[in-house]
Amino acid sequence: MSPEFPKKVRSDLNPSRVLTFRIDGRDVSARADESILIVARQNGIAIPTLCHLDGLSERGACRLCIVEIKGSARLQPACVTYPRQDMEVVTTSERVVAYRRKILELLFTERNHVCSVCVSNGHCELQDLAVELGVSHVRYPYLYPGYPVDASHERFCVDHNRCVLCLRCVRVCDEIEGAHTWDVMGRGITSQVIIDLNQPWGTSETCTSCGKCVQVCPTGALTEKGRSVAEISRRRRFLPYLQMMRERRDER
Amino acid sequence: MNRLRLATTWLDGCSGCHMSLLDLDEALLDILAGVEMVYGPLVDVKDFPARADVTLVEGAVGSEADRRHILEIRERTGILVSFGDCAVTANVPAMRNRFPVEAVIARAYVDNADRHPAAGDGAAAERPAFAFTGVPRLCPTARPVHEFVPVDVFVPGCPPAAAVIAWLLTELVAGRTPEIGGRSRFGA
Amino acid sequence: MILHSEDLHRIARDEQDRRDGFRHQVHVCMAAGCLSCGSGEVKQALEAEVARRGLAGRCQVKGVGCLGLCAAGPLVAVDDGATRYQGVQAADAAAIVDALGGSPVERLRCSGDMAFFQRQTRIVTENCGRIDPERIEEYIAAAGYHGLHRALTGMSRQEVIDEVGHSGLRGRGGAGFPAGLKWTAVAKAGDSLKFVICNADEGDPGAFMDRSVLESDPHRVIEGMAIAGYAIGASQGFIYVRAEYPLAVKRVRHALAQAERLGLLGNGIFHTPFTFHIKVRLGAGAFVCGEETALIASIEGRMGRPRPRPPFPAEFGLWEHPTLINNVETFANVAPIIRNGAAWFSAIGTEKSRGTKVFALAGKVVNTGLIEVPMGTTLRDIVFEIGGGIPGGRRFKAVQTGGPSGGCIPSQFLDMPVDYESLAQVGSIMGSGGMIVIDDSACMVDVARFFMEFCMTESCGKCVPCRVGTRQIHDLLARITAGQATPADQATLEDLCDLVRHTSLCGLGQSSPNPVLTTLKYFRDEYHAHIHERRCLAGACSAAGEVV
């Protein structure tokens, strides 16, 4: 098994090159290997994200960070798009804001996100995004799929009904912990994250029980046992630190 | 000035949103000065009036009776408010949606019943089938109100906080159609 | 063994002599379509009949690739197409052998002798139905590997690229990107390690062009890839072919072994420093692996899911090295271009779409099969002349091109020339060449639903708009065909199509709404009837008619 994302950094981007471009009319400067998302955040310009997490590889999959680039008809995800000299990026046009809202609504229809009885209620990135994007209701029919809850691990629990398939768990397990216990099976609307070869979590021989997956989960899909509604909190500060240490090791 | 003809109703929900409305405490008095309650669980009126300016709908549409009720309400209401998560998202009532209605009924009224009158106390062997006599028939799934009728204002929250409801009613009394924006959220 | 040019000519000459020794040639189609209806038994019976009569030295019975008219298989061609027989059974062997040199067996004679065969222009399929795909000698005798020889011994890398560029050849996999440009980009990429990939993951419903080419003339693709490898500076190629094409896989592997044995693949080809190897990689049935970045991931052993571009494979491809990906038909055009020159190729077709295009003609059309026509041929010619029109006395309604990423083209565009630009103008795409003819018994909403179901189940699930959007669109279409939809549902449908089209990660998602958008545009009345009158104009949707 191997992950879907390449591990190497892009060789076509020159980190020693510095350029200037514009985000929402503001002049900003960037290194050629910094994504539009990174540069926007450095300059205090918020772009909503879901699959992105500092310290993990990028997927460009949730499409919430799409931005407009003047002169290009196609919308681009800010997390995997790199600036060019004099590029003009628009992050909050009516068009992209409307698209982001619809994408978020689609996510809400996909599984059973019953916020009121969720361990993550009040600490959930999906909820926060709904507020941020002004989603007060969902215009598309809910799909109400039937997904299981796996509580076979002694400390952790996975509730697929609340999974948004951001694959942060898969990435952190592979890229940071190095265990690659998580992966994803199926395709399309039937995609699902799995433990090893789709077995109960408690029977996994590769899981180190480090809990990193639980810490990075944006919703209530991965939780610690013993927490009730709205009781979970996530600790993620270890991630950029571990990544930094790893990069230093690579340099040696 | 005419007072706002306000109706409230309670479909497939827990009444928590109505409780939150009552949580306004003394602020309720100020708001009620501009309001005439024409229908709802809080007032003793049997039939939905011919006309309401605003109706707050709590709960999902989970039964045939809910469905008929919401269609009637929509016809007779100016501004329809989806009031709370069950109305907006179907929320907890929708957790039954992945099971067949018969299985849900059996679990609630047969499997979990400690008394089966037909079989005598304590006798679990005889498990009578549930019949929809005298109670509304459940729809196959519980669904949000706006899947049945157009909704004008959405107020998510489980339940929406009293302060949000106060703001909402103040806006409505003032003749405005409020946008909830980020004032409340799913699960709040 | 490494060939010199004299060896190539000797093999060709020997093969010609061998063929000239026979007075009659009986070609039996051994491509997947005919094999499935018994052409293998027909071939055995013909061989037995020839042997029984002691004609073995005078009459050659040969298995060949696709004869084109798949609807009428098993097909047999006598004396290089002078007579064609259809629906041949083993029991007909004696009659066919009897008729050799005399008047043909009328009851078996191909009714499509006329337009279907005569209106075609064959470049890619020039050897289909003529040579035995399992014998490299026959390919060499048909000028095979002469293009590679010419490129390696008489042309610089730049000259090869220029020749392809000047020919005007555009990618035949769907988007029609100019091949010369792509080759130049990979050639210029600064990396000592580069790759050539042949995309044979043909997955569109109703499309079988690439399968037929690989089954009928695998060496043509190998030669094209080798020429490309020389031009861009790659020494390793991969053919990514779907496992659902076992016969194509078998013949490609066989052809690779033959080419290696003759030194046409390997080290120092034609005694030049050029080295080229090709490996076969099997796809595991995911449609999305036809998308180039997903295909690359699949070859690397990772999950076959697309990644955002840029970077494009031309600079950041297989194992992060510059990679040229072209489709089967594109590579199949390369050797003839090198052999005959860019001017010869660019004289065929239209100004912006040069050459020919192979189409898999399917659906409600008399002559189902594989055809090759010059770019710019009208749809009317393809459907009514070559295709023989609509069977069963029904009326033409639309033609669907480009598979699930394409669109439905109605009758008012029948006189439109088929080229990349014209198809795009009416909301469809060339795609890889699937062409499904739809008659008036079909409901266009249901057609759109069918294609959306395909996209929904084939979505890889990586990006949200495609993963959930295709499901929501499919459900809406199902509601419409069931007669349960409201006017608001149609608005939601259009809204979601717009979303999926503009925000999906890869081409599969971005183009998946095309069948819906084109049917909404050209057959809006059918949507209207389902939604407002609860009826299906074609009478095809069973549930419509019940007012809910």
SSE map:
The complex is a heterotrimer of chains A (252), B (188) and C (548).
Chain A: E1 18-23, E2 26-31, H1 36-42, E3 66-69, E4 76-77, E5 88-90, H2 94-110, H3 125-132, E6 149-150, E7 156-159, H4 168-177, E8 182-185, E9 192-195, H5 212-216, E10 222-224, H6 238-251
Parallel strand pairs in A: 1-5
Antiparallel strand pairs in A: 1-2, 3-4, 3-5, 6-7, 7-10, 8-9
Chain B: E1 4-10, H1 16-22, H2 27-32, E2 35-39, E3 52-58, E4 61-63, H3 64-76, E5 77-83, H4 85-89, H5 101-111, E6 115-116, E7 120-121, E8 138-143, E9 153-155, H6 162-173
Parallel strand pairs in B: 1-2, 1-3, 3-5, 5-9
Antiparallel strand pairs in B: 4-8, 6-7
Chain C: H1 5-20, E1 24-29, H2 32-36, H3 39-52, E2 59-64, E3 76-78, E4 83-85, H4 93-99, H5 115-118, H6 136-141, H7 146-154, H8 157-167, H9 179-188, E5 195-200, H10 209-216, H11 218-232, E6 236-242, H12 246-261, E7 277-283, H13 292-299, E8 323-327, H14 328-340, H15 342-346, E9 356-363, E10 369-374, H16 379-386, E11 396-401, E12 407-410, H17 420-425, E13 434-439, H18 444-458, H19 464-481, H20 487-503, H21 507-511, H22 514-522, H23 524-532
Parallel strand pairs in C: 1-2, 5-6, 5-8, 6-7, 9-13
Antiparallel strand pairs in C: 1-3, 3-4, 9-10, 11-12, 11-13
Helix pairs in contact in C: 3-4, 7-11, 7-14, 8-9, 8-11, 10-11, 10-12, 11-14, 18-19, 18-22, 19-20, 22-23
